[in-house]
Amino acid sequence: MDLFSAARRLRKPFVVGADASEELPLAARGLIGDGFTAALVAVDGAVDWLCLPRFDSPTVFARLLDWQRGGQMAMRPTQRPFEALQAYDPDTAVLETLFEVPNDGTLRLVDSMPWSDDPRACIHELHRRMDCLGGEAEVEIIFDPRFDYARDTPRIEIGEHGVMAEGSGGERLALSTSQRLDWKPMPNGGLRATVQLRSGSPLWCILNWNASVIEAVEAHRPYEHLRVTRRKWREWSSRLTYDGPWRHHVMRSAITLKLLMYGPTGATVAAPTTSLPEWIGGTRNWDYRYTWVRDAALTLRAANLIGYPQEARDFYHFIRDAVDADHGLELMYTLDGGAVPDESELGHLRGAFGSAPVRIGNGARDQVQLDTTGAVVDAAHLFERFGGTLPLRAWHKVAAIIEDAEQTWESPDHGIWEPRTGKRHNVHSKVMNWLAMDRGAQLARGFGRVDLAERWEHCASQIHADVVARGMDPNHGHFVSCYGEHRADAALLLMPIHGFLPDEDPRLVNTVAWVRSELGAGPFLYRYRADDDGVGGEEGAFILCGFWLAEALALQGDLSAATEVFVAHAEASNHLGLLSEEIDPTNGALLGNFPQAFSHLGLVNAALRIDLALRLKDEGSAKAPHLIGSLPRKALGLG
Fold it and tell me: In angstroms, how far is CA 125 from the centroid of its own chain?
């Protein structure tokens, strides 16, 4: 109960009302996973998002995208309304939900997916245990799988140890229960059962993907798996090297980023969900269950900074295996390095909060985003600076993409934000190509390629001069989004973070102030003005950009403002410390796919930056809080 006492002090309980048709807010969920896929568990006891057997597989439960048709597996009190509290077992991805029912017992639900950080040991199971902690309470169990994004309602058979759902394509999902239940069909599909729980007699429910038979719960060894999963998560978490003032937030972000990594290949999904709207009722709904190389590189860069070099190593094995020397670096890949599917719409699904369309696949796969190389090379440089050794084959792939960037940096591209209005000369993309050359030159010397180092240093100088000459507003002394256009772009905040110019340079100071004045909404920040990106509709403030702002302010020495911005974003997380892609600045509602790797890596980087700045200040040092790998060298004539 101590776990929930702490949660109750920090957050108010959710009240789950009498109307079961009322959608829960996006934030009312926790994340569990096994290194292959992840599930969202809502505060009403429903698993309402799960793709099996991996992140980008079709859904088996998708109530999140259609409250009536999507499907769910629920364990919860029958009496409504009730209060619900959620908390993670500390330093793990084991989620606990406490239900408090007026004039009845108190129930605790424990959810986990067996995990040992060994992809060979993955068993594709989800384990749920409901305990009555006092008194007596009636619990309902709902088993309503809808395969293939709810296009296939499976046939369900009742057996001795539970039930089995079989889809038209032969997919099978077994639900084993520790008590024999009296299952009844529900009007709109699926089965429902109720059971009276008393203290000391827990109810286990085990979901098992592609099972041949319904096994007894004992055969799944749930107690042993729960112990191992807790222990392995705590062992992994103990490697965290950050011990600053926001350790709780950084720890939860690290675990979340780990949950978004696909164990067999080292790839990282941008988010485990698709089509969660960037604005309620809008059409900015995209599938993020793939590996954007830039996002993954930034994620692993953050992991390296807080003590997780193995994850970074695994990512470069993915780069080694996925990048085709003849075709170069793709913008995004599937989890095993394949081509991302064509974008299509699922018209039969209502969409989360009525926000259609629901999309699978991603049309941005064919865009040109020239900033990606810089993120990959910078992360590789940091990996080596932290004692890692880039494998020779991986180095060859990295060198090849740097050489491609040499030939293409002068070209226009679509840019980091994936507008659908064509290509521009994006300043951020040019800066990231400069970064690729600068960091690539340092890597090349480590591999004995002085010729490449000198060539890339020269190219870095060319790019730098071009950006300074063409990427500024000459009348106001700040950088702009694109050559020849007077538009603000939050990605410009990466210029001080990557050390494009000295911290005190007035052009950087002016740029940070201008971006904040143009795109700010209190402590939050929009990534750009979305009225001309070819998509249409509104969107929320972009959480990653707010963390960039906090870092930029810390580099400029404004620690008070940096801390204020950081804290506002960290506290915008849900009751479990999870962040989505965007936020509505007017009411704090989380928006977009959830949870989002971008947002959590941003939190990690900003926490490190501000913590370093605070320590330098305490020591009386005048040094700026540059993290390893962020200082410019020959490109600025400083080295």
Answer: 22
Name the one residue in this structure whose structure tokens are 């062992």. 235
Both structure tokens of 322: 């996925």
Q: pLDDT digit string (tens) for 277-312?
A: 999 998 999 999 999 988 888 888 888 889 998 887
**Integer Cα distance of 511 and 493 in angstroms:** 8
Sign (positive/negative) of CA torsion 261, 262, 267, 271? negative
Confidence of residue 27 (pLDDT cuts 50, 70, 90): very high
Least confident of 59-73, 108-122, 308-322, 389-403: 308-322
Q: For the segment 526-543, what is each residue's pLDDT rounded down to a tens digit?
A: 999 877 776 777 899 999
- Listing DSSP states for 117-182 in one string gives S-GGG---EEEEEEEEEESEEEEEEEEE--HHHHTB--EEEE-SSEEEEE-TTS-EEEEEESS---
Residue type, 184: K
CB atoms within 10 A of CB 397: 23
CB 372, CB 293: distance < 8 Å: yes
Tokens of 421: 């209005």
- Which one, of 566, 549, 539, lies nearest residue 276 by Cα? 539
CB-CB contact of 166 with 198 (8 Å): no
Closest CA to 408 of 426, 421, 387, 381: 426
Q: What CA–CA distance (Å, rounded) separates 474 from 466? A: 14
In sequence order, the 6+-apart residues with CB closer than 8 A to the CB of 62 are 48, 49, 70, 71, 146, 149, 150, 349
| Structure-derived torsion over alpha carbons of residues 116, 120, 126, 127, reported in degrees to the nearest 10 | -50
Q: How far apart are CA 293 and CA 313, in angstroms?
A: 14
Report how far residue 145's alpha carbon sits from residue 72's, in angstroms, rounded to the nearest whole number: 6
Cβ-based neighbours of 244, under 8 Å, separated by 6 or more: 250, 607, 608, 611, 614
Give me the DSSP letters along 546-591. HHHHHHHHHHTT-HHHHHHHHHHHHTTS-TTS---SEE-TTT--EE
* Residue 520 identity: G
Strand spans (E) along 218-275: 261-262, 267-268
Query: What distance in Å separates the CA atoms of residue 424 and residue 256, rounded to the nearest whole number?
Result: 34
Q: Give CA–CA dist 427/371, Å, rounded.
A: 10
Helix H or strand E encompassing 292: strand 291-292
Neighbours of 622 (CB within 10 A): 8
Q: Look up residue 241 and give its two tokens.
A: 């090297």
